UniProtKB/TrEMBL annotation:
Residues 1-97 form the CENP-V/GFA domain. This is GFA family protein. It comes from the Bacteria. Belongs to the Gfa family. Pfam families: GFA. Transmembrane segments: none annotated. One of its GO terms (molecular function) is metal ion binding. Gene3D superfamilies: glutathione-dependent formaldehyde- activating enzyme (gfa). The lineage of its organism: Bacteria, Pseudomonadati, Pseudomonadota, Gammaproteobacteria, Lysobacterales. PANTHER family: CENP-V_GFA DOMAIN-CONTAINING PROTEIN-RELATED, GFA DOMAIN-CONTAINING PROTEIN. Keywords: Lyase, Metal-binding, Zinc. InterPro entries: CENP-V/GFA, Mss4-like_sf.
Length: 118
């Protein structure tokens, strides 16, 4: 769990930062309205999913990483405990919370792994 500060996530979430939770795809299940989930393949890395009835953002599959990002706000019972900031070099909302801040992504996810100061 963490925060993404990239311009793409900010635009998609309509906010200055996007709170994410990462899951193995087999651990993600749409329990209501599965037939109303639309898709938009923004990049080979990101298959965005949204509700075709209300337009709400639901999740993004990241096939190359084998992970699904379920937006923290879509899980009302989730005890959100962020552990990291990614794409902090693009931040529009500096956050001084003591969490690690990656310039882009950790190297395990194809980024530089470079950290930036708060």
């Amino acid at each position: 769990m963490g925060y993404c500060h990239c311009a793409s996530c900010r635009s998609w979430s309509a906010g200055p930062v996007n709170a994410f939770t990462l899951w193995k795809p087999e651990n993600v299940k749409v329990t209501r309205g599965a037939g109303q989930v639309g898709h938009f393949q923004k990049t080979p890395m990101s298959d965005r999913q949204f509700c075709t009835a209300c337009g709400g953002h639901v999740m993004t599959h990241h096939p190359p990483l084998g992970l699904t990002d379920v937006y923290a706000a879509t899980i009302p019972t989730l005890d959100f405990k962020p552990g990291v900031h990614v794409n902090y070099a693009e931040t529009a909302l500096p956050m001084k919370d003591g969490l690690p801040k990656f310039k882009d992504f950790p190297s395990e996810f194809g980024g530089s792994g470079e950290m930036v100061p708060e």
